[in-house]
Structure formats: structure tokens, C-alpha cells
Amino acid sequence: MPRNPEEIVTEGIIEFGTGRESLVQLLTKVNEELSWIPTIAIEAIAKATRISVAEVYSVVSFYSFFSIEPRGRNIVRLCSTISCAMTGQGEILEALMNEFGIELFETTDDGRLTIETTSCIGLCDQAPAMLVNGEPHVKLTPEKACDIVRGLE
Amino acid sequence: MEKKVLLAEDQPEFGAGFELALTMTPADVVYMVRDSGIKGRGGAGFPTGIKWNLAGAASSDVKYVVCNADEGEPGTFKDRILLEKYSERLIEGMAIGGYAIGSSHGIIYLRAEYPYLIPAIEEARKNMIGKGLLGKNIRGKGFDFDVEIRTGSGAYICGEETALIESLEGKSGFPRNKPPFPVNSGYLNKPTIVNNVETFCAVPHIILGGPEWYADLGIGECSGTKLFSISGDVEKPGVYELPLGAPLKDLLELAGAKDIQAVQVGGASGRTIPAADTYRSLSFGDLPPGGSVIVFDSTVNMLEVLENFMEFFVHESCGQCVPCREGTLHLRNAVEDLIAGDICNKESLNDYFKLAEVMRITSKCGLGQTAVNCFVDIINNFVDFTDERISGECCCERGDQ
Amino acid sequence: MHNISIKINDQGYSIREGSTILEACTEAGIKIPTLCHHSKVNISGNCRICVVEVEGWNTLAIACVTPIIPNMIVRTHSPRVIESRKIVANLLLAAHNCDCMVCDSAGACELQDLAYDFGIDNRSRMFDDLECLEEIDDSSPVLKYDPSKCIMCTRCVKACRDIQGKGIIAVLNRGADMRVGTGVKLLDISDCDGCGECVQICPTGAISDKVSNSVRSWEVEKIRTSCSYCGVGCQLDMWVHDNKLVKVEGADIIPNYGSTCVKGRYGHTFIDSDDRLKTPLIRRNGALVEATWDEAISHITEKIGKIREENGPDVIAGLSSARVTNEENYLFQKMMRAAVGTNNVDHCARLCHASTVAGLAAAFGSGAMTNSIAELEHAKCILVTGSNTTETHPVIATIIKRAVREHGAKLIVIDPRRIDLVDHAALWLRQKNGTDVAWMNGMMNVIISENLQDEAYISERTEDFEAVRKTVESFTPQMVEDITTIPAEKIREAARIFATAEVSSIVYSMGITQHTTGTDNVLSTANLAMLTGNVGKPSSGVNPLRGQNNVQGACDLGALPNVYPGYQKVADPASHEKFEKAWGRKLSKDNGLTVVEIINGLESGKVKGLIIMGENPMVSDPNLNHVEKALESAEFLVVCDIFLTETAEKADVVLPAASFAEKEGTFTNTERRVILLRKFLDAPGEARPDWKIICDLSTSFGYPMSYANPAEIMDEIASVTPIYGGMRHSRIQEIGLQWPCPDEQHPGTMYLHKGEFKRGKGKFHPVDFIPPAELPDAEYPFILSTGRILFHYHTGSMSRRAPALNEYVSGGYAEIHPADVDRLGLADGGPVSISTRRGQIETTVRSTEIVAIGSVFVPFHFAEAAANRLTNDALDPKAKIPELKVAACQVAQVK
Known about the structure:
By secondary structure, chain A is α+β, with helices and mostly antiparallel strands. Helix content of chain A is 46%, strand content 12%. Chain A has helices spanning 5-16, 23-34, 39-49, 53-62, 82-86, 89-100, 142-150; strands at residues 74-79, 113-118, 130-132, 135-137. Chain B folds into three domains: 16-217, NADH-ubiquinone oxidoreductase 51kDa subunit (Rossmann fold), CATH 3.40.50; 225-297, Ubiquitin-like (UB roll) (Roll); 302-391, Up-down Bundle (de novo design (two linked rop proteins)). The model of chain B has no long low-confidence stretch (mean pLDDT 94).
């Protein structure tokens, strides 16, 4: 069971404090643990840091790794920038979407998986590449990518 | 030819440069860095010594040393290699920076795409602490220094130093108006130096080898060596260390590039040149030596490459200033129109070229100013307006113009 | 800063160092177009319209953010510059929904101006229009956001965050998806309170008034006047078309500098309300029927004359009004004193700040805000107590928030409720209601025991300190904790912050004054300020915020039973003689009756005839059941008002008055600033300005009054009122003047008691703690307090006729802590019965942690659930102010 978002925020505040500069760290903590940032977490952070709710949303919506929509336990981020695009990223994405029955930026009904594309992840020498829950996977083929994702919890 | 310093198999022990620096005055450290002629390895090429000198001169009890590890330029992965293997060198370089400008706080801003590098950096920090080279009163010199890791959250713009600072402050990564510059008013409005991973990694070598030695590593006017990440249509993609100022073709040879149609140097915001121009040098005076080189062979449709880049910029523009926010969108649309055949002659692009120039001269930060480079280069050099791909089924023939 | 030489367009200039290129050009008289730039908010430098060429630069310079440097060579209109500006304008237009033909902002749109100046028509537009027709957020009662017209200049975001201190809206997303919004919520479920700062600062039609003006900016006449709501005295520009008020804008001038609250901007629709009184009414056979002015005036004269003849003048009383002008208050009390011959004149200041007038006059010699509103922004510590400033004086609250946010002031809030300012405070102390003397003595105890007092100030400027030192000795933090429930450590912390700040200011309002110990409370604030040397210098002082638009002026002009205009005492023979001479009549030497005494007098027969101008005691006064009986037992009641109020319904004669919109005159705002009221509409029907009505009545009473206009009345006021000696309408056409202003050359007084107190030395008064008159017990276990809310005003006669305000709050409610709601089996939004020993009301539960467990708060604006049916009319013995802030009550389910 995922933890209560407010509990995560409370823990984050002990770790990072309530200064303005703690905001991105607090959001990162919630986002990493829950895969997304629920409204109650935003409100709790706003209250603790005395930053307005809208301003917290502003920061959340600026960064592409943050999400205010629920996402899957596992997040696949497929690099869509040039070196990966040239080496078959499109086919891999197609394969993943077919295999798991979701569109880009969608989450499977069981909450297991979200597929996203992302800007260059710095693995161009081993393209095509993706990050799965932050871990790099390189020199992908459609089959290899599907195998990796299938093996996730 | 390769010249390995930062990536050398056999290199000085981590911390040796810092130990030596501690025997000098902070001012002397700054002078050494200045005299080495090293310029920012992130790509902007601002002389590091001048930056440190300004920050050192700024009066403040609290100053910050920030490492820009937000390597986001498409095609760039050199810092990843450094962070994987040479984080101790990086921290050492930051400590030297802290000693030089009078700062006890180091922050590594690591891009969100590299979380798997955190253990290596933390390990390096522990090792440095173990050697007594981080912490309080280091080597009894009354100098304190430590580093913390902060991560980004997926925003290319945060590679811009003031956007990075905003992000560190918990805000959206909107680049600031300059002046003031970070050396006077950076993180939390305190004097701050922001340097690239590679720059910090080079500093201990400068201290140990001396500024003349370092300067002589480069070719011609250039100082030192430089890491280049090369990918695309090459046999041996990877990171290579060359003397700064080396001709591009040396690098292409090393990586095994064949059938070259175009080479993009310096990433999406860099320049795109034809094979005939690969004799040119990788230097701050010529081809941007930020670190990315992508090779496209003759089978590649360069318009599709351009579309990918423009899409990248549309997605990564922070949006605060008008020319970049709106301009990237219109340039992307123009490229899509070209691909769709809705634009089929160069004259129709006149307004877009004017727009590109306005973006270059009026955008707030480097992103908007350089996002137009690939548009201008690729349309000018790699789009054949008589080619069937473009005019094959164009708007004129469809009669919908 | 010295000047440096630069060249602009080949011409040399010497400009102050540190200026931006834009400022330099403005100084040189060269116009550079701007869009995101606005003088009231931080520069963003985002629109890139103000680009200029600087010789030697590779890129263009942004004029609004680039500082000049010596020998800089600037070109503001080179071909490269012009082309860049045009292209940027083209980019904006391609993303903009250019429906100028039906846009309310046409003619007042900065983007439209730009397109016009650059000659960009539809044919010469460079780029294809982008898809921009997103949905409009019109969920707010007062404003709407149309993203299709937004150019992302972010002025509104900064206005909301930095000027208003709210941060309701922010920039969402990035790049081309960027927009302004509240987050996931629409405006209606955000904390937006509709102040409209964003509307005012928006350069296009992106954020606009929700209800279309149906008139464009060039069709209207804009008339500047003073707001008719609270005591801040905001200056407003009224947009008038065809004798209709179509839009309100905050004037960018002292004291509000463009800001207003939701009432000021959207709450003036009452003027045009259908049920305005249009003819005089006389009660015949039990019913009020229309009459002519002549009939009404002679009827009043006859009745009042008869009562006076039979019982003498002192059975007649008058209630003047804190809402009408200074000139009208002056004439009203003059009429009561000279024409009727009694000092029985008072007004509702009795119910709000009588204790301030009494307390501060005793301590300092003058009973008004010592300092000015604007000075608050630079105080280093602000102690706010008994004032829910955000709701009652919204524009002052924004200044307090800016002091905290922009200038690093420490805010201490001491309030039983968790008011909005708590979110901005360094420290919040929640005292038990009615224990204010205790915590103030406690703070002084700490200051003295830690030797933080200003000894030099105390010895040079004040007297009787020893007595206070002695009294507060026993008020140790621990003892104070026992009385107030504020933790001892917090008392110490507050004392230290207050005493050690470079300059500290106390801001209070009715949480301090409306107690049986109201005067004691006020004296304690004065003690605390003097102890720390915080009176008589900028940004310091004791600052009672006055509630109604002209409550300060009504007091100043003598609508009080014991003083003539300018606080000249009736009991002082010299003053008495002065006014007898000035007014040419014998005047009564006896102090008159106060509001509550007048009401009580009606019942006892001590008062038989009552003339009320613009007041509504049937809602505003404590213990309404009693008030109702009293008014019903009046022999003759005259009410002059703009609406048939709850009080007017009980009158024998009702006179239709002109509203603030329909007359001239002056108000005096809470900072003692006399500000001008300008007529911008014609009065409905036969309604007349109060000053004319008073003149007619007085003349009919046999004491002729005749003035050509209110300016002439002010001239007379000046001649008899030293603190207003220099006030003339001609002097306050642009900005108001603060009293004391003794002569026509005097520039007015920003803060009082500089160098010397009005009374000579500041007087310390030892004050002991006395508990409130009525405390919770087994039968009435809850503490009830009452007060105002942002969206309504006083008895609601104005604000409840503004549909937008009703959309925010349409009726009464009681704030009850969720724990109590649960315990009593109530439901949020459900009915509740609240009763005290004096009365009972049924209202709606608002479950909120704003109030403490065991406390209830009921706003007093709503006649149908009138808080004042519950309140205690126990009086402060000195100021005769009732204890509206503490009563014991029962809270129960509705049977």
C-alpha cells in the first residue's frame, strides 16, 4: 500500500526544512515514492512552506518528471530525441503500447505501468535507450524492451 | 588524436590537486586557473578564472559552488562518464573552487535522468571525507567544505545557469534577467559560481600540472583537452578526449564515421555542417565544443531530424519570453509544413528566417538564441527544394495555395 | 548615485547611474513600447517588445532590465529594432484571440495599441494564427479569465502574489502550454476573494470583469471619488455612462495605490438598486405612505417641536452617521446643539472605537491612528491584535503582508481566531477572549524583566511609568498563561520581537475595543508602545483601524455627546463659549447621552423623539430584542437613509437621502486623511443629500442654515475646528490632507506626537486585569464573538444589495470548530440554534478551525440571523462601549 502523502510530506519537511528552496526536493520525494503528486500532498506542502497552492502547482507543472495525474508503479521513459529516434525508438514505443494496451502517457488499468517519452537521457552512445524507474536500459529492440517491462512487478 | 588527461588510465590520486591548492593562497589558485586559459566546459566558454575571480572578490559571508550536472543537450553524455568514474575528481575540483572563492557549500545539481549515478557520487563524497578532504577545518587550514546532491526534475532549461539556480531555490526553472550575474547574486542571492562537471574535473589537473602545461595541451589559441560525446551513424560511439582545437575530422575518424551527410556539433543548439566542412576545428572560435557530435549519413532525411529538434525545443522552451515561446512553435510548424508539402519553396520561409534572427537577438537566454541554429543550418544546407521529397506532392500542384 | 553619460539616438544625456535604459529613455523623453512592464510589479523582461540596439552588442538589449553603463550608445528606433518589435508583436497576435470588435477591453488594450502603432493589420500579419480558443474560467462571481487573450506577461500573477500577498494564481505549465491558473481548481473553489487587482493590471482582455460593462473605455466619463465602504478610504475611479456606474477602478494614488477590495470594486451596485428610497414617507394609520418634502419637513417640525415644548430639548436625541460626510456630520450635530438645543448626539463610533477615543486621548492626547497606512510597510515588527485586517481593512492587510514579504517585518498576530494574517505571521498567540490586558501586561513584564524597555524615551517623553512597572510585576508569563492560555514562552518571544525590532507598530481594532474593559485594553496598547519608545516616529505607533468610511470624521466633527468639533469639550467653558458665539445660540452645558443610553432612554421615557441619519441600530446595536422594544416605544422617530432599513421600517417619517455617489463632501479615513467625495450620478427620484435635508430641517426648526455647497460648510468647519483649520476642498482635489492641519499653509501631519505628545508627556496608566462581564458557565458553555467579514459591510444595507457579494456569501452563519460540530451532532452547512441570555437565532453551521474549540463566531451583517440579538449590552464604564466581542452562549441543534 502506498503511504499517506501527508506522511511523506511530514517526513520530507524533517529532511529538507520548510524554506522555499526545499520545494522541489519535497515534490521530488513525493513524486518518487508515489509516482505522482496528489492534491493533498500539494496542499500539505503549501501549508508547511507558506507557498501558495497555485505556486506549488506552478512548480509541479513546470517539470516534466512531476505529475499531478496518478501514474503507474512503474514508469517507462523512452528517449525520443534524435539518436534514439534514428535507431528505432518509434518501433519500440509502438511495441510497448501494443503489448500493454495503453497509449503514450497513459497508465494501465491495474496501475502497474505508465509509458512516457522524454527528451535526451544522455545514453545516445547506446541508443535506443529508456529509463525504467530511473534505471537505464540500452541498445533496445522492441522485443528486449517488452521483455524488460514484462518483468516488472 | 586522443589526448587523455581527464580520462587517462593513469592519473594522479584523487585529492592530490586539492592538497596542493591548500598550500597556496586562494588568490593564487584563482590566478592559476585564470592563467591556464580554461573556459567553461559546458559549452558557453566563459573563462573560468574570471568567473572565480569575480566571485572571490564579491563580499559575502556565504557563497556557493554549484556544479552543473544537468547535461541535457541532445547527444551529450560526457558528464555521465565523468560522474560514473571520476566523481571524486569532480568533488575535488569543487573543493578547490570553494577554497579559491571562499565558499564552504558545494551543490551538485544532477539531472533527473541520471539518478543511477547518485550512489557513485555519494561514494566519492564518502571517500573524500575519509581522506579528510571534506568537512570542517580541512587539513587544519581553517577551511570547511562539503557538497550535497540535488536533483533536477526533467527540464532542459535548467542547464542554463540562472535557471539552474532558480530550480535549486525550489522554483520553476525560468532563467533570470542579467545582470546581476550569479558571481554577485546567485543561489539565495549569494555569490555563486556555476561550473560544468568537466570544468571542475579539469581544475585539479591544472593545479597539479600547472597552468602552462594545461594551456599547452590545446591546439593553437585553445587551452587543455576536451571531452566529446559522439553518436549517430558511427561505428564506435562514445566519449573521446581530444586537445581542444582539434579538427572535427580527427574525432570522426576515431569514432569511425562513414558516408557522412551532415554532422551536428554542439547538440540541437549547435551547428549542423556538411561533410566538406569537417576540417574545421572544435574550439570556442569555430565549431561549438560543448561536447555533442552527432553524425548523419546519407540515408537520413535531415528535415525529419530538424523536426525532431524543433519538437525538442518546443517541449523544452521555458515559455517566459515571447520570441522563444512562440517562435519555436512557429518554426516547428514551418518544418511540419515543409514535410507535408504545404511549403515548397524557400521564399515562403522568408518570414521564418526573419523570425529566427529575431529569436537569436531578442531571446532571454541561450535556449531561444540558439534554438534557431539547426533550423537555419539544415534548411540552408540540407534541404533541396527541387527534391521530390519536398516538392513531390506540394501545395502548388495540389492547387491549394 | 551620480550621473553617467550615455548616447541615445546620437544625442548625449547625463542620467542617474543605476537607471535602466527604459528609465533613461523616459527621462530623455523617448517613448519605447512596453507590454509586460508595469510600475507596480517587479520587472519580468519577458515580452521583448522594449528591445533597443546597443553599439557593440551582438544581441539586442531589453530596455526595461538593462542598466545603463558609461558611454553606452543606444538606438531605440533603428530598422533592426523596429523589425524585431514588429515580429514579436506578430508572434503575440498569432497567439491572441483578436476579437477586438466585441472585446470589453477594446480601447484599453495594450496589445491593440501596439498593433495599431505598428500598423499590423490582418493582411500584414506574418504568422498563421495558433489554436488558442481554450475555455474561459468564469466561475468567479466577479471576474473571468480568458486564456485566448492572455499574452503571459505575468503581471496578474505578480499583482496577486506581490501586491495583494495572496498568490491565488500562478504560471502553470511551460513553453507553449503556459497559462495562468490556480492549479487544478477553477477560480470559484480557490481562495480568490475577488479584489480584482489582476483585472486592473491586465494589459489585454484576458482577465476582466465578469459582467460586461457593455460600454467601452472611450464612451465613459471617469470620475474620481472615495470608496463608501471601510475606513481605508480607497480612491476610486468611477466609470460612468448615461447616469450609470459601469466599472470601478482603483486610483493609483495614496492611500490604496490602485488596489481595492471586492466590495470597493464590485460592491457598489447597491446605488442603482430598485428599492432605493425616492420620496419621503410618513406613517399614516400605521403604514408608511409617500409624501412631499414639504409635508415631511413640516410634520417633523411639528412633532419634534411639540415634544420639545412639553419636555424640554433633552428628551430629543439624534444619531448621526459614520457613513455620511464630514460636512453632514458637522451640520447634524450643529442642528442638534444649536437648533434643538441638546448635546444628545452620538453615532455608532460608540459601538466600535469609543474606547479608543477615550483611551488614546488619556494616554497621548489624541484618539486616532498615530501613524499612516503607508508607513506600515516599513515597520520592522507589526503586532496585530483584535483586527481581522484581511476581511475588515483588506487594502491595509495587503500592506502588512508586503511589509512581511518584501521588507522582512516580523508579524505578531494575537487573536482568538486563526485569521488569515496568521499565515503570514512569525508568531500567533491565541488568547482566551477578553484577556487582552493580561497578555499585554505579560509582554511588558518580560520587556522590563529583560531590560528591553527604552529608558531614555520613558524618562524624556512620558510620565507615571513607575505605576505601570509596579502593576505588571505580578504578570509573569506563567501567570499570564493561566489567564490567557497563551504559552508563557510565546509571550516571552512576542515581547522580545516587539521590543527589539528597530521600529514596532501596533495595529488593533474591535477585538480590543468592544469589551467592558475596552478603554483598559486601549490604555495597555499605549503603555506597550511607550515602553518600547514606539510612539512619535515613522512606522511605529498605536494604530486603531476605524471601521466605517467616515467614522473618524464623524468623531472629528463632533457627532459625540461630550465634544464639539475637533474634540473641544462641552464641559470646557471656553469651548462652550466659543461655540455659542460661533453659532449664535445658547448651547446646553450638559454632556449628552450616548447611543446605548439613548436607546435605553427611549424605553424609560427619558428620550421621546429620535432623529436618525444613516444608521441602522436595529441590526448594529447590542441586544436587539431590547433595541426593538425601545424603538417601538419612541414617541416620534425620524430616519433618513438611502434604503428602507430595518430601523426605517419603525420610523414615523422616512426621508430619502442621496448616496455617496450623488453628492459632494469629504470623508476622513482611518489615518486622519480628509479625502474628497465627488458626485458622479444623479440621485434617484426626490432623494436629497443629507446636508440639504439637515439645512431644511434646521431652518424649519427655526435655526436657519444655508450653504451653497459642501465646500462652504468645510470653510465654516475650518473656522471653528483647529485640527481642521487648514482643510479646504480646493486643497484636496488630488490627494487628501491629514489632520492636524491648523492652517492653510500646513502640509498636514503624517504621524502624531513627534517630539512631544499632544498632551505634553505620554501618560502611562496602570491597568489591572478584569475578566469579561459574562463568562461561559454550565448553562451557556460557549464563548460567542461577533464581527465583520470581507464580503459584507455593517448591517448589509449596501453590500447585501450587491449581487456579486451575495454570490460569495448570501446569508449568516456561525463558525464552529469541527470538534464541537461533531460533538453536538451538527453538520457543516446545516442549521444550528445559538442562544444567550438575551436572545436566540437560527443560522447555518460553518465548520472551521478558524475558531477554537468552545468558541463561536457570528458575523453581524445579517438581519435574519442577527448576531446582535445575542450580544451583551454591558458597557465599558469609561467609554460606554458595549461588550460585543464576548458573550456566553448555547449552541444546539435546531428543534
